[in-house]
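Lecture notes, unit on binding sites. The following record was shown on slide 14. It pairs a sequence with AHG.
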Amino acid sequence: MEDSRIAMPIGTALDRFIKSRQTAFPYATGELSQLLRDIALSGKVVNREINRAGLINLAGAAGTENSGGEQQQNLDVLANIRFARALEKGGEVCAIVSEEEERVIEVNRKAHYVVAIDPLDGSSNIDVNVSIGTIFSIYRRISEEGKPVTMEDALQPGRNQVAAGYILYGSSTMLVFTTGRGVNGFTYDPSLGEYFLSHQNMQMPLEGKIYSVNEGSYHSFPQGVKDYIEDCREKGYTGRYIGSLVADFHRNLLKGGIYIYPSTASNPEGKLRLMYECNTLAMLAEEAGGMATDGTNRILDIVPTRIHQRAPFFVGSKNMVERAKELVEEAKMIEK
Ligand code: AHG
Ligand code: MN
Ligand code: MN
């Protein structure tokens, strides 16, 4: 079997890359490849809509709420429709867990894959022309094909992911994903309508100098997180917080850094969703040599009990996440 970490040349088109890696996928039937293509294609459609949102009256709030009781934006709703439709039509997915849908959506009973998705991440940045993203995780179903999907299929720990990735709608649009054999980044060329390999076998620097956290909530952070932030300040690190998880993560992946969304007074379990935010980025981080924890546990080992479950989240360069975890644990010991 081809060693899938051997670099393909920069400029390789996504389709070609996927095809050449197909034999290295854990279940090489071509379904996972097709599923990745479906996601990439929907990303192009959403990208187009985001780019002209201001012109066609798509910006702004939809006046409805999502699964977490948060205000939905028009583009949140639209992106959800675009991805769900593509996954339904594609036929490779038996169930979808989406931030924008309260329940698990049953799709094709005969299919083998479950997708968890945050169709549009960074809602508060939609109307102000700041980077936003799509986050997705793919699992193999546990139950027998042909039968109705079960909650066990949906509620799998992150370590079961067979693929994870995001699309970043930034100054350029990128698709970054892993199938468990390294992380690769593709840049979208709108003039050709195709993604091309631009970042091979991405590695997160072990150490970084960037910390990303909403310091406006500092007073309600756990003591250990306050201690870690103090540590970063003393070391003269740089604070960078976009407020779009995908964009903050992507920068830290390239440059080295840590992203933190801890528990707060208003969000005692943290704000980010385990299944389509934390797990996805945790798999990417680990595949790139980084680390992800909730302060105590490895994110990928948490077994979800609810599809929209939240978790405190520390992700990024390994040494930084380890240091943050150490200070969080120390502070907990002192509190006891
Ligand atoms: P979403 O738009 O999918 O609801 O997610 C927003 C998330 C994440 O992207 C971001 O890092 C975080 O919320 C920002 O939250 P605060 O405004 O509380 O910092
Ligand atoms: Mn999100
Ligand atoms: Mn979202």
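Take-home: The helical segments are 14-21, 31-51, 74-90, 151-154, 223-234, 245-255, 274-287, 318-335.
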